[in-house]
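Example record used in the benchmark description.
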Amino acid sequence: MSSRAALVTVLLCIVSGTVEAEIVGVAGGYGPPGPTLGPYEITPFPLDERPLYELVMDVPSPFGGNLEFSTSLQHLRVGQGWVIGGHGYAGDVYAGNGVSEFTLTLPGNTYAFYLYADQEPHDLPWPITAIADDGTTIVQDVSDDLGTAYFGFYQDDPLGPPIASISVSSPYVAFLAVGEFGIAIPAPGVLALVGISAVGAISGRRRRRSLVGRGSGGGSSPCL
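Model output (structure tokens):
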């Protein structure tokens, strides 16, 4: 084992012996996204250059691979098929006609992800629910007056399992839409360093959410 690999292994052991894996949900409200989510730097998805108004099953990720949808969604853009973007957003939107629920399967090794969700009709503040694969749940209202809502999820233990999927639903709508995605897929060595810096902040976050899902790791450990 090289000295660099040995250092990473030591850092991983320190972090894994200190924290318990947990996906954290962030109900971010209606303003623009920040550059970070939890301890991770976030990369926004670039503009989708594919033709508008076509049905798609995925969106290319800035790190390679795809964000996949469980059902076909129409590729629109604010001002081109979709009316409201919120906080000045004018990019891509993916909408389901008559679809009230669908799941986003995230690219492999995703440790933080946010999306904005919207719906039609816009007249009343209807709730939209987003649930990560471990059960972590966020519920926020969306309407004309409120704007689109930010739903963020991150794994607070960088050695815990990545986030695999997020389900989005609203029982009262004709169109349910998502867009303005951001993602973090850190390299393994970066994960170890992020973990060291995150250890001291984790205990204070344990009870912030009304519903918390627990992640669980598996496999053998090089620390044993």
